[in-house]
Amino acid sequence: MTAELTRGQNHPLPRARLEIRVSAGTPIVAGATLGDENGRVHGVEWVAHPGTPALPGLEVSRQAAADHRLAVDLDAVPDAVHRVSVLLALPAGGAGPGRFGAVAAPFVAVTGLDGDEVASYTITGLEAESAVVALELYRRQGAWKVRAVGQGYTGGLTELLTDQSLPQAHALARSIQEAVAGGLARSVPAPPARTADGNRSRQAATPAHGTDHGAAASQGTPGTVPPASPYDAPGVSDPQTPGVHAQHGTQQPCPAGPGDPTTAGQSSAPTGGGPIDYSHPRRQNAAPPPPPPAAPPAAPGQPARPVAGDATGWSMEERLYNQVWGMFEDLARTTAAYRSAVDFADSRMEKELDQVLSDPRSRIGGQGDAAREAARTRHTQLVSQAREALDRDIAQLAAEADVVEPALPAAYARWDNPAWHAYRVPMEIPMALRLGDLHLPEADRIRIPLLVRLPLERGLWIDSGRSASLDGSFADSHEMRRLGLETAVAHAARLLAVYPAGEFTVHVIDPAGSGAQALAPLVETGVLAAPPALGAAGTADVLARLTQRVDLVQMALRGGAPDALPPGLDTSQQLLIVNDFPHGFDDRAVNQLRYLADEGPAVGVHLMMVADREESAGYGPLLDPLWRSLLRLTPVADDHLADPWVGHAWTYEPALVPPGSQVLRQVLTQVAAARRPWDR
Length: 680
Known about the structure:
This protein is of the alpha+beta class.
């Protein structure tokens, strides 16, 4: 169970190989120092920072980013090291905020390599500080523990390093900030966004804050603080998926939120000489208007009647997005309160029964029986009170879900929602996309939509390796691969449906041709850029073309000459569906796939893998960064996602088309018809 630490608390570490995940909502610098048994740092060679990112047993991010993953192997640190301190700092001299009091409270989590969260800490109470020691891993009597520190420094990195007895603190702090500035200059900016008239902008832009490989950067204008969201993700667990975390937190535990405001009517395309604006084209830069008027007041003693869109936002779409987010958080917290109350009742009853048994006079006879019965009665009473409170909250959330679900736009709606029957190809992309539903065992009737922000900040992995679902049914490997590809087709169809005509292109690699039946809706409606690639030659051709596209766009943007892109280059968002990996992939193709996963999202190339991780085990740890960079989903119900607040294991159910429904083919047919003028 995840330990939520407060300042000064510690928690044992069950393993030596760990990840430390940081989410701050704005680009920050992450580093670490190695200290002796007195906490003293002996020299600059004991400090890991963007200029020197790797030390024995420790590796940190190479540039400033909103989300970080620090790799730690406690067995590999030198014997003289007794303390590993994780430090965070705001970049100096940039366009961003200069103090932590002006940004969202940083969130730090210690996880295993599988994404399971061990301990987390939200650093609150910071004001004028620009650097902070977030937490420390320390050795005590041969065992390692983690302690929440949260010590801030108004003097920045110089004061922090000086406090750790580093004699070259001032020079090292300056070199760290210089390394950060160099990293920002080399970072890959996001591709130009669509302008209001529908044309793609190709204006030159200066690089903005980029992302660390393996951690998605928060999208937003530098200097603004987007609210956190449970749907974007890094990591759940990392609760960038956001955000919900995959594999108990694949994505950073607290990814980017509903979006940052920009000026009304302003194009989101970057212009030369200024920072890139990553925000949604319709966001505004002032406070959003209040929510719509509430429903008529309820009868005395009754809860308020829920209203769809009862949240802040500039549009109904944004209000519904924020409302779904609020429902997710409410359910997580009320369930956490119930579980905590039950745990307390169990521990109290156990303690009272132990006291009865420890007294020889009460072990036998009526007095002992009465004491045991009283303990059980108090336990039942406490659990009943907790359940009543939970049922009351669940009833309110269920009523809210009943009015919110029918009001959702097509991008947020289930496939059986009437919104899809009135579908028309949109003129601009929505804020987010529904990838499935989430629910908890205590509130099984409530389904919370799993929404991810658009454009995608990370790829998707449809795990076809699970052989059993939560309902007890089993599926063989062939059936799981079929279900996995059908799930991928449903997700790809949604992406095609919510983008304007010509703004989204899908490629498919199916080396063995085993997915012909599942891919039929995409192939027969004509929405694919080309027929699915078959065999090793087809795989190599698609990967080479997409890799070349990433290289060309990167070079053009880094060189400040986006107009130099070759004529006819498809600048729309690209999605590559890979089926039956690693069949048909040689070492070169595997490296190209890793490159696309790392560099592709920043320039509009995204992956959707349908794969069983065990089948690629022969590559060893080579592919570990690939799996961690993708949001893991499953074709059957599975409880592998976690929220960023209390770490509940949420059951995920994919968004599939109802059996016998033709809605997916009808939608894709409209998409194909709208694409034809763009394909000429």
